[in-house]
Amino acid sequence: MYKIIVRPLLFCFDPERIHHFTFSLIRFLNKIPLVPSLFKSLYLVKDKSLERQLFGLTFKNPVGLAAGFDKDAKLFNELGNLGFGFIEIGTLTPKPQPGNPKKRLFRLKEDNAIINRMGFNNGGVEEAVTRLKKNKGVLIGGNIGKNKVTPNENATDDYVYCFNALYDYVDYFVVNVSSPNTPNLRALQDKEPLTKLLQELKLQNAKKSNPKPILLKIAPDLTDEQLLDIIDIVKVTKIDGVIATNTTISREGLQSDNKTEVGGLSGKPLTQRSTDVIRFLSEKSQKAFPIIGVGGIHTAQDALDKLEAGADLVQLYTGFIYEGPKLIKDINKALLNK
């Protein structure tokens, strides 16, 4: 029904406008008595064997929603009714910022992909905290970044601010230095600045009575040498894991007319590259740390491939938009049938 009726209708409209409309619709529907239970009955797969123990947390199933969809923590409770095992909110910054000028979100229908250059548009971390206080039991990851106007030499201050603001309201943290849509942000992936940033966050974490897992989200465009650096950084800083991968700046093999738009590419064209990065990190590190696999998951087999390559959990974003919530159920069913 989603791919035959709902998606063609949604795809008739501007992607960013329809995103906000869909949020409003899902929120409205979930206020109707019995509708949340209906969503759960349609999409939630409950089975003890789907549970995953990772970072000291219990994930009800290994299929999560990637950051970028619910940036401002506006819909995590309702999205949890669609069968996700966990929801990652953000990327959040200390101060509110509008992001890049519109139009900044593009569908590449022929490629089952999306290009975005949103630029960390969000209402600021404090506003998100207000909503997170109303969490009804959803396992939440907090994806944190820096404000556009903050120079890289002061970036650590922004990450620390977000870390401390979110600490009581999320279950794990994700350090985002890999978005291509904030000027110079990816320079923070270089070994020296990244090590310093993660060490400071680990120091802040150690001051807490109950330290939270800290993960690093990396770009798919890193070379093998840079990926080896990532493995070394994880070892040195003792962070808890890696999310592989963010969007790509590559445009190789695209068919859509709007393929030259500037921004990060997500979706089906990223499927193989993200799986390759997962396998490289897993094999070269000898499975030294957990990996959350994300990028181009449009079928249950795509998810299985990432798990077999070394991922411990997976996340959806563009595949969720193109395939609908049934994809979550399909992946969990496939895992049960293995």
TrEMBL record:
<dbReference type="InterPro" id="IPR013785">
    <property type="entry name" value="Aldolase_TIM"/>
</dbReference>
<feature type="binding site">
    <location>
        <begin position="246"/>
        <end position="247"/>
    </location>
    <ligand>
        <name>substrate</name>
    </ligand>
</feature>
<dbReference type="InterPro" id="IPR001295">
    <property type="entry name" value="Dihydroorotate_DH_CS"/>
</dbReference>
<feature type="binding site">
    <location>
        <position position="176"/>
    </location>
    <ligand>
        <name>FMN</name>
    </ligand>
</feature>
<comment type="function">
    <text>Catalyzes the conversion of dihydroorotate to orotate with quinone as electron acceptor.</text>
</comment>
<dbReference type="InterPro" id="IPR012135">
    <property type="entry name" value="Dihydroorotate_DH_1_2"/>
</dbReference>
<keyword id="KW-0472">Membrane</keyword>
<feature type="binding site">
    <location>
        <position position="267"/>
    </location>
    <ligand>
        <name>FMN</name>
    </ligand>
</feature>
<keyword id="KW-0285">Flavoprotein</keyword>
<feature type="active site" description="Nucleophile">
    <location>
        <position position="179"/>
    </location>
</feature>
<feature type="binding site">
    <location>
        <position position="71"/>
    </location>
    <ligand>
        <name>substrate</name>
    </ligand>
</feature>
<comment type="pathway">
    <text>Pyrimidine metabolism; UMP biosynthesis via de novo pathway; orotate from (S)-dihydroorotate (quinone route): step 1/1.</text>
</comment>
<keyword id="KW-0560">Oxidoreductase</keyword>
<comment type="subunit">
    <text>Monomer.</text>
</comment>
<dbReference type="InterPro" id="IPR005720">
    <property type="entry name" value="Dihydroorotate_DH_cat"/>
</dbReference>
<feature type="binding site">
    <location>
        <begin position="317"/>
        <end position="318"/>
    </location>
    <ligand>
        <name>FMN</name>
    </ligand>
</feature>
<dbReference type="InterPro" id="IPR005719">
    <property type="entry name" value="Dihydroorotate_DH_2"/>
</dbReference>
<feature type="binding site">
    <location>
        <position position="296"/>
    </location>
    <ligand>
        <name>FMN</name>
    </ligand>
</feature>
<dbReference type="Pfam" id="PF01180">
    <property type="entry name" value="DHO_dh"/>
</dbReference>
<feature type="binding site">
    <location>
        <position position="181"/>
    </location>
    <ligand>
        <name>substrate</name>
    </ligand>
</feature>
<keyword id="KW-1003">Cell membrane</keyword>
<comment type="similarity">
    <text>Belongs to the dihydroorotate dehydrogenase family. Type 2 subfamily.</text>
</comment>
<dbReference type="InterPro" id="IPR050074">
    <property type="entry name" value="DHO_dehydrogenase"/>
</dbReference>
<feature type="binding site">
    <location>
        <position position="91"/>
    </location>
    <ligand>
        <name>FMN</name>
    </ligand>
</feature>
<keyword id="KW-0665">Pyrimidine biosynthesis</keyword>
<feature type="binding site">
    <location>
        <position position="143"/>
    </location>
    <ligand>
        <name>FMN</name>
    </ligand>
</feature>
<feature type="binding site">
    <location>
        <position position="245"/>
    </location>
    <ligand>
        <name>FMN</name>
    </ligand>
</feature>
<feature type="domain" description="Dihydroorotate dehydrogenase catalytic">
    <location>
        <begin position="50"/>
        <end position="336"/>
    </location>
</feature>
<feature type="binding site">
    <location>
        <position position="176"/>
    </location>
    <ligand>
        <name>substrate</name>
    </ligand>
</feature>
<protein>
    <recommendedName>
        <fullName>Dihydroorotate dehydrogenase (quinone)</fullName>
        <ecNumber>1.3.5.2</ecNumber>
    </recommendedName>
</protein>
<feature type="binding site">
    <location>
        <begin position="67"/>
        <end position="71"/>
    </location>
    <ligand>
        <name>FMN</name>
    </ligand>
</feature>
<keyword id="KW-0288">FMN</keyword>
<feature type="binding site">
    <location>
        <begin position="116"/>
        <end position="120"/>
    </location>
    <ligand>
        <name>substrate</name>
    </ligand>
</feature>
<feature type="binding site">
    <location>
        <position position="217"/>
    </location>
    <ligand>
        <name>FMN</name>
    </ligand>
</feature>
